[in-house]
Amino acid sequence: MVSTCLLLLSLRYTPIRHTSTLAKVIKNRLNLELDSIRQAGTWKSERIISTSQSSHIKIENSKNDLLNFCANNYLGLANNSEIIHAAKKALDDYGAGLSSVRFICGTQTIHKQLEQRIAKFHQREDAILYISCFDANAGIFETLLKEQDYIISDELNHASIIDGIRLCKAKRLRYKHKDMSDLELKLKESYNENHDNIIRLIATDGVFSMDGTIAPLSDIKYLADKYNGLIFVDECHATGFFGRTGRGTEEYFNMIGTIDIINSTLGKALGGAAGGYTTGSKVLIDLLRQRSRPYLFSNTLPPPIVASAIKAIDLIENNPNLPERVHENAKYFRNEMQKLGFKILGDNHPICPVMLGDARLASQFADEMLKRGIYVIGFSYPVVPKDRARIRVQVSAAHSKDDLQRCIDAFAEVGRQFKVIK
Ligand SMILES: Cc1ncc(COP(=O)(O)O)c(C=O)c1O
């Protein structure tokens, strides 16, 4: 008995000593890493918004309104009154949440309605909801691809696609950004084997979030057909507003219905709350419901969010001209900034990255813009490659011409101050 007590005491004592040493090691290591981030000028601090998300916002400790050019609020729906009303009604009708994953007891009529609306919007057989598009990207590759398969990915794909790919066992090949000759080389490489029962999946963003560039989907489709490949597209920066009626990159290239798998978000143009989805063939969606880990092991989307996404789709379907305004605004902003001498990356898209190069300059530039009432953020490593720092301006349908001009004027002033332009 005594020896058992002694043993228990010693067992209890050992981990405490171990923990305190470990805590010290961890603290030192983390502090070193934090210091290196500060020294590199890539520290990201969060400004705290005290209003709803909008083109005009307030942030804590600032009395004045700010013009917001940071949000992915492409259609200005984040504080739309009809969406807010729909969310409040769903809160009354269906409650705050389900306390469950979908397959246990977390599926309500509105979840099925939203999945059907998404599938219809993209002209697909079915759709499956996730709590985020990050999760949709985490679930797709591991579920679909086996060891004998290939995943061929654009080098600038979003972090969530990269992480999703890491989870699967397929052979990985990476092609240079939008480079079709390189993609063809990689497809040839994957084609040298026994073709039976092999999936070769090309994965790309529809629109690349840091560069505002557009994947050449029709060329990708040509190569996929030539080498018997499938295509996955992440449409987070296209769904709801890109293409004539907002159906995304497929519609932009006039090829709706031809991409095998689409993943997208409800957290940008479609109301801006949260949530993601995969849409495609019924067999694919059936399999995801059975096997996709973020779907099986994570909570259901809350009803108010589901209802706000349904309302956002209503608004887009009933107002086919809604996407037009954001593109007019983007065109105006890009033209005026280029006339001033700024280098703007990307193809005619509301993501307008103003290139500055140096991380510290991007951060100081953003601070100076804030002093002039313009909220923009500097992006630096590791979000973008080293020495490719930029301010990513996000143009919205909610910006007026006057809003855009105020932003352009501030860029001109600060650009001259830092000698970025003459
Ligand atoms: C291209 C892309 N894919 C996926 C995501 C993740 O979307 P969500 O916020 O719904 O997780 C984002 C978000 O920033 C994105 O830009």
From TrEMBL:
Cofactor entry: pyridoxal 5'-phosphate
Enzyme superclass (EC): transferase
InterPro entries with a match to the protein in the record: 2am3keto_CoA_ligase (IPR011282), Aminotrans_II_pyridoxalP_BS (IPR001917), Aminotransferase_I/II_large (IPR004839), AON_synthase_class-II (IPR050087), PyrdxlP-dep_Trfase (IPR015424), PyrdxlP-dep_Trfase_major (IPR015421), PyrdxlP-dep_Trfase_small (IPR015422)
Record GO biological process: L-threonine catabolic process
Enzyme Commission number: 2.3.1.29
UniProt catalytic activity: glycine + acetyl-CoA = (2S)-2-amino-3-oxobutanoate + CoA
Keywords of this entry: Acyltransferase, Pyridoxal phosphate, Transferase
PANTHER family associated with the record: 2-AMINO-3-KETOBUTYRATE COENZYME A LIGASE, MITOCHONDRIAL, CLASS II AMINOTRANSFERASE/8-AMINO-7-OXONONANOATE SYNTHASE
Family affiliation: Belongs to the class-II pyridoxal-phosphate-dependent aminotransferase family.
Protein name: 2-amino-3-ketobutyrate coenzyme A ligase, mitochondrial
Organism per entry: Rotaria sordida
